[in-house]
């Protein structure tokens, strides 16, 4: 009984610490945009056929003076909860398009969109403004959404996706395979790209189930005419498998980690 009570107490202490961290991040996040604490890093996407960089994904970084580098998986959920993701998302789109406009024309830019951004009427205008301010050709911008965008308020969100598509922007489904009913969503919207989540890569080359799923998605992409990308490739063994299965594109530490703008530009220009 006494040990039970001790466990409960430890649990409480841990919960309290977590809650406190959450609160602190929430407070620090307010004004972080104005204080210029955000930065975009860019991770190359490499075509398996040409072995060249075909695009980069913009990944948000937060350098907090008090807390150091904070991972997006820690602060994006809080930014979503507070609605701060909306002005942050505008900055991300503008910044990413401006950066990509300096790259060679065959290199595209992928930007992650939060489901919360879809709740705001001006998402389409935000995207259109980022394109016109930067002069980036719309077809060079890919927006990445997760299944949750089609989960709630799907009618409205589908309409927004259609409007984005109308601008000439490409639409990618991110983290494919981790949501609820992936396959059905491929019927509700004609995605340009499927990005398989890194969860399916981790246990390759030995995981039978992962291999079967990876193979099925490559086949699905082939028959639906959708570009297939796989994230989180770290080893030569993993690369060999996804190459053999017919994926079009990979993203992962084996080629490059996400890099600051100046470094990714060097990498892109170095292969010209
Ligand atoms: P995501 O969009 O699925 O991005 C891929 C994540 O996988 C990135 O983590 C990237 O650094 C990581 N990654 C890439 N290759 C490898 C690899 O070979 N091995 C391993 N272990 N990891 C790899 P990151 O940058 O920490 O971002 C995490 C998530 O945060 C993103 O997942 C995305 O959902 C969200 N996020 C990041 N930037 C933004 C943004 O600008 N806006 C929104 N709304 N969400 C963002
Ligand atoms: Mg992504
Ligand atoms: Mg992903
Ligand atoms: Mg992910």
TrEMBL record:
The chain holds residues 800 to 1071 of 1071 of the full protein. It comes from the Bacteria. Signal peptide: none annotated. Residues 22-272 form the EAL domain. The lineage of its organism: Bacteria, Pseudomonadati, Pseudomonadota, Alphaproteobacteria, Hyphomicrobiales. It comes from Rhizobium paranaense. This is Diguanylate cyclase (GGDEF)-like protein/PAS domain S-box-containing protein.
């Amino acid at each position: 009984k006494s040990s039970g009570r001790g466990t409960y107490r430890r649990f409480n202490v841990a919960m309290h610490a977590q809650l406190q961290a959450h609160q602190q991040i929430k407070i620090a996040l307010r004004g972080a945009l104005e204080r210029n604490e955000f930065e975009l890093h860019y991770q190359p996407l490499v075509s398996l056929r040409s072995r060249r960089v075909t695009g980069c994904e913009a990944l948000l970084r937060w350098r907090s003076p008090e807390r150091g580098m904070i991972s997006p998986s820690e602060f994006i959920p809080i930014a979503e909860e507070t609605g701060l993701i909306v002005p942050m998302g505008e900055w991300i789109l503008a910044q990413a398009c401006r950066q990509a406009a300096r790259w060679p024309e065959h290199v595209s830019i992928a930007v992650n969109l939060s489901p919360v951004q879809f709740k705001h009427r001006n998402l389409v205008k935000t995207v259109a403004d980022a394109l016109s301010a930067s002069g980036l050709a719309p077809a060079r911008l890919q927006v990445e959404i997760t299944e949750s965008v089609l989960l709630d308020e799907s009618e409205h969100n589908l309409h927004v996706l259609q409007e984005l598509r109308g601008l000439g922007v490409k639409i990618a489904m991110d983290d494919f395979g981790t949501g609820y009913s992936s396959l059905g969503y491929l019927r509700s919207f004609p995605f340009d790209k499927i990005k398989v989540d890194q969860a399916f890569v981790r246990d390759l080359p030995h995981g039978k189930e992962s291999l079967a799923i990876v193979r099925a998605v490559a086949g699905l992409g082939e028959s639906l005419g959708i570009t297939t990308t796989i994230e989180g490739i770290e080893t030569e063994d993993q690369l060999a498998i996804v190459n053999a299965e017919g994926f079009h594109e990979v993203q992962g530490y084996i080629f490059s980690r996400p890099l600051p703008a100046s470094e990714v530009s060097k990498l892109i220009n170095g292969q010209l």
